[in-house]
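User: Here's a structure from my thesis project, written as structure tokens. My advisor, Dr. K., wants to see whether a designed sequence matches the one we expressed. Can you design one independently, without my sequence as a hint?
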């Protein structure tokens, strides 16, 4: 009962953070697009967010294993409050170069905050669940991941709404105040020592992973690169520039997409039950999902390139993309926990999400650049290449329960 209570508290704090994170992304994107910034310039605003997410996951896992997940969770929430307040200090009269540099700095803080909070919350599942509960582990991971993405989608809508209602600065300060209350509640309620390793581990071990953790992390890099290469900059700018959508409409649409995507993630164990014959996902499950996603993305790219109806290609295609991607992402999130021991969970999850952040960094950079060079079709064909790479790497992951047990003893 205590474990469930602590898991609920950590998850609740993560939910509060996720709302502000999604809203912040939409606020920055729509605000600077309205100011006339080009797609590649908008992409630059998020580069340090993703880069410092990589560094944070790598080092944060070691910090969490030494000092406990409570410390990393609190640090993530506090840094996000600081980032929101700092961004509210942006002045319209500043030169464009100074504004971009300042926003990149605040986004770097937010990137550190996001990945400290995410690593802490997801690691807590493995720590609080008894060994051998693989089916329950898959369900808990799916629920946390799905609810997080649903709330991030709500954050997209909230960002567009707050920008139209309060304006840029007031919206940021309102979110900072709300998140400060979440931080205070977490400080008062969570126990000490959550997720702390029983024995000290040398800092050099943060890169010493098992072969299968490395393979899964590399597949994760390409999987998330394939999403963000068209989703982060290319899609919102396409909807605004080519379809003439308003800020609120774009925010609302992307919010509904991410909410639906999160819902599918939460339901992934039920959706895969028949295909897995009552078992749990294996490496082959991830490979099949990646190849299916590559085929679907190629069809969307072909449809956009041949100028078929945007509603048939981009809108309906995006819905199907989200369905397949969500299931594959849930499988990945389960496998990284199944492949590791509880005592090393913060280190391995941190390393894995470092690869996740690297994929988002790659996708974000390519999204702005390729959209400027080749429009949305250029982003989509790059997505096909990236997700095919994820599928090929997943083919080398172990299959069957015996493979999982072998990995867990060497991770």
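Assistant: Designed independently from the structure alone:
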């Amino acid at each position: 009962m205590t474990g469930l209570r602590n898991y609920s508290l950590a998850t609740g704090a993560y939910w509060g953070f996720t709302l502000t994170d999604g809203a912040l992304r939409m606020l920055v994107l729509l605000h600077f697009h309205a100011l006339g910034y080009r797609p590649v310039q908008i992409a630059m605003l998020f580069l340090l967010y993703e880069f410092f997410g990589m560094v944070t996951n790598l080092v944060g896992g070691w910090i969490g294993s030494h000092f406990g997940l409570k410390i990393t969770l609190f640090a993530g929430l506090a840094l996000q409050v600081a980032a929101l307040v700092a961004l509210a200090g942006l002045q319209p009269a500043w030169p464009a170069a100074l504004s971009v540099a300042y926003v990149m700095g605040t986004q770097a803080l937010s990137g550190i905050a996001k990945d400290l909070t995410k690593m802490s919350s997801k690691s807590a599942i493995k720590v609080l669940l008894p060994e051998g509960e693989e089916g329950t582990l898959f369900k808990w991971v799916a629920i946390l991941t799905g609810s997080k993405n649903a709330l991030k989608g709500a954050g997209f809508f909230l960002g567009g709404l707050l920008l139209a209602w309060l304006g840029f600065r007031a919206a940021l300060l309102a979110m900072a105040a709300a998140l400060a209350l979440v931080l205070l509640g977490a400080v008062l309620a969570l126990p000490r020592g959550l997720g702390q390793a029983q024995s000290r581990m040398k800092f050099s071990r943060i890169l010493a992973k098992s072969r299968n953790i490395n393979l899964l992390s590399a597949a994760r890099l390409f999987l998330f690169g394939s999403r963000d290469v068209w989703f982060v900059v290319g899609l919102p700018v396409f909807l605004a520039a080519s379809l003439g959508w308003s800020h609120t409409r774009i925010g609302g649409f992307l919010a509904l997409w991410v909410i639906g995507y999160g819902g599918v993630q939460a339901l992934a164990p039920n959706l895969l039950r028949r295909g897995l014959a009552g078992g749990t996902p294996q490496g082959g499950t991830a490979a099949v999902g990646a190849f299916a996603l590559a085929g679907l993305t190629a069809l969307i790219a072909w449809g956009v390139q041949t100028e078929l109806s945007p509603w048939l290609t981009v809108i309906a295609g995006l819905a199907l993309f989200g369905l397949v991607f969500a299931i594959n992402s849930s499988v990945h999130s389960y496998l990284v926990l199944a492949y590791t021991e509880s005592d090393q969970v913060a280190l391995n999850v941190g390393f894995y999400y470092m690869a996740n952040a690297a994929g988002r960094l790659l996708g974000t950079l390519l999204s702005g650049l390729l959209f400027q060079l080749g429009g949305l079709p250029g982003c989509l064909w790059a997505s096909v290449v990236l997700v095919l790479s994820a599928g090929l790497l997943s083919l080398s992951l172990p299959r069957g329960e015996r493979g999982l047990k072998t990995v867990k003893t060497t991770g």
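When you compare it with your expressed construct, this may help: The longest helix spans residues 345-394.
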